[in-house]
Amino acid sequence: MTKPVLYGGIEGGGTKFVCAVGTGPEDIQAEIRFPTTTPAETMERTIDFFRQYPEISAIGLACFGPLDPNPLSPTFGQILPTPKPGWTGANLVGMLKQAFHLPVGFDTDVNGAALGEYHWGNGRGLDVFMYLTVGTGIGGGVFVNGSLLHGMIHPEAGHLPMPHDLVRDPFPGICPFHQDCFEGLATGVAMEKRWGQPAATLPPDHPAWDLEAHYIAHAMTSYIYILSPQRIILGGGVGQRDDILKLVQEKTRAYLNGYVQSPAVLEHMDAYIVHPGLGNRSGVVGALALAQQALIQSGE
Questions:
Q1: Domain residue limits, the chain
Q2: Once rounded to an integer, what is the mean pLDDT over residues 99-105?
Q3: Is the CATH number 3.30.420.40 carried by domain 122-275?
Q4: Is residue 62 over pLDDT 90?
Q5: Domain 7-111+280-298 top-level CATH class
Q6: Which has more pLDDT, 150 or 48?
Q7: How many CA atoms lie within 13 A of 297 on its CB side?
Q8: Which backbone phi and psi does 73 adopt, to 5 degrees?
Q9: DSSP conformation class of 280
Q10: pLDDT-derived band of residue 3, with 50, 70 and 90 as boundaries?
Q11: If you average pLDDT over every residue of the chain, what do you get?
Q12: How far is Cα 65 from Cα 78, in angstroms, rounded to an integer?
């Protein structure tokens, strides 16, 4: 019997990298995670891990951005200007290709997670859906009619302008580009700076969660109006809390105020905004799917 093709997958987050070897969520044969430090050190650890598995046929990298995912661009595979110190201009795909001479799939971490959810999670069978992560950063991957959405570069769902009531929330925001955009007001980092303690330590009845759900729900209404997705998958360390999911569902329905006349939001919101079917594995499993896609596209 022919052995299945083996892939390498990398979930490149702003806080940690997760590297895995396998074929899908039910077949992860090896895995490692380590802190994201400098590009040189982080990629060296990544390459050292995959060198132990010479049988892999392709590598997928689902990485924090902004980044250049266009294979025809001169800066393909690089990190674009980012607030993360030292990472602007890092040529991640170039480092992987130089080390392994294999097809490399490259996309945003959230697009990778969306691809994983499409194949094995809560995006299965859907034509249009969105994966949104709310954690250390905020980003969104969009899947449309069989493909991940790119366009000019890729969606930047975290940088929506937000209605900001300075009486209710005098916190100025932390985005170095826009200050009080969605990401500037609602990341886990913003919550910690606003409330003086990590979001994970805030009790369920703390006013932080109602405010957080308020911002997420405002973003949801914008995504719904613009993309008309069949489902929105809400992930990330903040987004995957069960208590915030219900608040977001309720507030999103309220903010839409009956304008979108679809049973999905009027009657079945509990099945419309949902947690990832793959839990916190969407990113690294999606990276394996990016590798598979790269191998197919290469024709090897």
A1: 7-111+280-298, 122-275
A2: 97
A3: yes
A4: yes
A5: alpha beta
A6: 48
A7: 15
A8: -85, 145
A9: G
A10: low
A11: 95
A12: 9
